[in-house]
Amino acid sequence: MAPKDPSIIALQVNNMGQLFNTLDPMPFRDRDLDSEAEEYIVGWARELPRDAPIQIAVHLPVTEAASDHVLELGTALNRYFRYRADYATGDLKELFRVGRYSLLVGLAVLATCLTVGRLLSRLGPGGNFQNFINEGLIILGWVANWKPLEIFLYDWWPIVRRRALFARLATANVAVVPKAEILPP
Fold first, then answer.
1. Tens digit of pLDDT for each residue in 37-90?
2. Which domain range does residue 27 map to?
3. Is-above-0.85 flag for pTM?
4. 115/32: higher pLDDT
């Protein structure tokens, strides 16, 4: 099977400083992306086919495209998105840690509710009020498991998708395209 053509995300900036967070004191290649630049790149990447490689084309004025920092732009972008993918992995681990703790609490509450319900049914003669209390305890026990079930069934999907998207962006080919004239922002 022939490799797919890359899907291109085009950025047009007046200088490379527009791509990176200027408050970040790290050297250029280790800086965080500007939040608007990240949002733009990630937003476009979400729309691209998942099986096609990504190319990020950065359109810069000719003078800016000739600077030494341009050689590090691809590494800087790839490194940033690798960091974001690793951060999403940490988010996923934290979510599952919270899910396990929540599940232990939920199961303990369920076991307690079922035990108390059975004890109450053995103590009294029965009746509507006792049935009401028993059913309420069962419902309470299952409601206590709502959050862990939500975590293990649904909450992890978006994090895995986001991590995969960042991983794709971390391997994106970055090309600088010199432009003779760039419109003002």
1. 999 999 999 999 988 899 999 998 888 878 777 888 889 899 999 999 999 999
2. 7-88+171-179
3. no
4. 115
Give the DSSP per-residue string, 110-173. HHHHHHHHHHHHHHS---HHHHHHHHHHHHHHHHTTHHHHHIIIIIHHHHHHHHHHHHHHHT-E
- Say yes or no: 82 and 18 in one domain: yes
Q: Write 44-52 long-range contacts (CB < 8 A, 24+).
A: 44/9, 45/9, 45/165, 45/168, 45/169, 46/165, 48/7, 48/9, 49/4, 49/7, 50/168, 51/4, 52/4, 52/5, 52/6, 52/7
- What SS3 state is found at 26? coil
Are residues 97 and 148 both part of a single domain? Answer: yes
Contact 145, 114 (CB under 8 A): no
State whether 20 and 82 are in the same domain.
yes
Assess whether 72 and 114 both reside in one domain.
no
pLDDT (0 to 100) of residue 182:
47
The total of structural domains in the chain comes to 2
32 within domain boundaries:
yes
Residue 184 lies in a domain: no
Name the token pair of 80.
């940033």
